[in-house]
Task: inverse folding
């Protein structure tokens, strides 16, 4: 391993940057749907050795000192984000004659922009770099901080946070109930950096750090196994759910001339004969995001058809656009609760809109360049004012999360108002049969574990599912399947540590690692001097 490390450290020129790109792209294989976790032990050590080789001569100016490490960080990040997000280009092909020209720019621009955050983190980390184990601790903290910033800066885009790479299955997700995805991200960088301790270093320090990392992995797996052993949250009595997945292709879904057929498809699936497990039929029917792709409140015939379909005592929860209640005349992306008489009893408007998908940042400037949002709605959607729980008869209050609102850790429930379950309605038909919908599901499962809340997921297509508060999928419909899921609503757990304290423990852990790294670095410098 020493020879391999040396060859990477001494590599120069375009080969360094090409290797950084390939190593970053390789790490994506640890995410859904591949879940090849061991690739992290190849990808991250390569990055660290490339940083080792990013030294500059004494007397070099401050900016020039940062550039070699920043370049390595940018190319590694660009590889990771490009390989992990290429599928967003599919959405530009739904109306290829209008948006197809934008696809190459979008597919490259987003990863390139996100990679800047990693480049800055690695460049700053290089300023305090040293040989040996202290650099690994600094590296893990710096990269976790970069990921946290990526998830929060501007509107935030935490898709494919590195922490998901070590949470392929529920048994390895359970620690997220304590430290959340950012704590698991810190653990991921530590775990994947561990092989570098076996190359080119001597002394007891490296063994202490290596054993500490192994102990953390053992604690993670052991805690998961212990938490899931005989874990049975129970069910909410009297609630029988039916989740409808119509799997309507996106080009058909947004064709206004097909609106009647699309509604009829949802109505027909909702009337499916009850399964033996639910002989009495559903008490609550759930349709996905924009199941009705027009303002339902302004279509009395559609509301009448829904009322005619719903048996007495049955409630429909559906995604549908609606007029902005602020009086602006704009349209919001909403979730509506509809009773058997066709009355809308409660509603929610999506707060966290998708940039370039549902609204256009810097609209005046970009529209002048011929760029507009991808949805077929002039002017895009308006954002809702606040996250709020919804009420529906005969079922605990729930937090509605539309599409990618589910990916924001610590922000899926209203402050101080804990719901009984999470509802994620989505439409992943935009992205076809690609890794995107599977990545979306993996992130949704971790939110369930973090909050200790069951998750009900209704997708036009994607993966619809009933998930218990431990992140275990009870039943599901896979991408492209047409049908319904009939099932019970699992009970919520008591508030998890993460739900109570958020990222406090991650911050404390990061500070302790920084102190340990700086003390170790100082000790090593004294020894060599």
Result:
């Amino acid at each position: 391993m020493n020879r391999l490390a040396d060859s990477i450290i001494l590599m120069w020129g375009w080969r360094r940057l090409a290797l950084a790109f390939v190593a970053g792209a390789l790490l994506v294989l640890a995410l859904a749907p591949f879940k090849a976790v061991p690739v992290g032990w190849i990808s991250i050590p390569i990055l660290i050795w490339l940083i080792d080789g990013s030294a500059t001569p004494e007397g070099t100016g401050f900016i020039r000192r940062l550039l070699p490490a920043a370049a390595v960080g940018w190319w590694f990040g660009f590889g990771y984000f490009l390989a992990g997000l290429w599928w967003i280009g599919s959405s530009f092909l739904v109306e290829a004659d209008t948006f197809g020209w934008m696809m190459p720019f979008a597919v490259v621009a987003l990863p390139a922009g996100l990679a800047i955050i990693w480049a800055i983190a690695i460049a700053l980390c290089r300023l305090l770099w040293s040989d040996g184990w202290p650099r690994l601790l600094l590296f893990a903290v710096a990269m976790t901080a970069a990921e946290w910033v990526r998830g929060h800066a501007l509107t935030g885009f935490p898709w494919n946070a590195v922490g998901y790479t070590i949470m392929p299955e529920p048994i390895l997700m359970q620690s997220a109930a304590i430290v959340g995805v950012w704590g698991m991200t810190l653990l991921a960088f530590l775990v994947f950096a561990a092989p570098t301790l076996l190359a080119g270093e001597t002394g007891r320090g490296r063994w202490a750090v290596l054993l500490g990392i192994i102990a953390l992995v053992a604690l993670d797996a052991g805690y998961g196994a212990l938490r899931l052993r005989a874990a049975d949250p129970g069910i909410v009595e009297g609630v029988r759910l039916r989740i409808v997945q119509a799997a309507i292709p996106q080009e058909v879904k947004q064709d206004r001339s097909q609106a009647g057929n699309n509604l009829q498809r949802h109505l027909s699936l909702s009337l499916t004969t009850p399964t033996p497990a639910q002989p009495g039929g559903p008490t609550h029917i759930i349709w996905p995001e924009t199941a009705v792709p027009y303002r339902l409140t302004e279509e009395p015939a559609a509301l009448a058809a829904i009322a005619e379909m719903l048996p007495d005592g049955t409630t429909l929860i559906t995604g549908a656009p609606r007029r902005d209640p602020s009086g602006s005349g704009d349209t919001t992306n909403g979730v509506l609760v509809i009773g058997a008489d066709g009355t809308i009893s409660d509603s929610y408007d999506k707060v966290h809109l998708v940039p370039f998908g549902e609204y256009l940042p810097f609209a005046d400037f970009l529209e002048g360049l011929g760029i507009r949002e991808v949805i077929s709605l002039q002017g895009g959607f308006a954002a809702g004012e606040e996250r709020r729980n919804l009420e529906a008869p005969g079922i605990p209050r729930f937090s509605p999360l539309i599409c990618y609102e589910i990916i924001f850790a610590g922000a899926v429930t209203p402050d101080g108002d804990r719901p009984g379950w999470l509802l994620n309605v989505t439409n992943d038909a935009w992205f076809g049969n690609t890794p995107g919908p599977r990545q979306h599901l993996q992130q949704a499962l971790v939110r369930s574990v973090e909050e200790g809340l069951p998750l009900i997921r209704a997708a036009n297509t994607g993966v619809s599912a009933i998930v218990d508060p431990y992140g275990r999928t009870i039943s599901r419909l896979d991408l492209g399947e047409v049908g319904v899921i009939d099932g019970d609503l699992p009970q919520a757990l008591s508030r998890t540590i993460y739900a109570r304290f958020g990222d406090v423990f991650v911050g404390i852990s990061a500070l302790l690692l920084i102190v340990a790294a700086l003390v170790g670095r100082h000790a090593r410098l004294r020894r060599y001097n």
Q: What stands out?
A: The mean pLDDT is 91. The first strand starts at residue 235 and ends at 245.
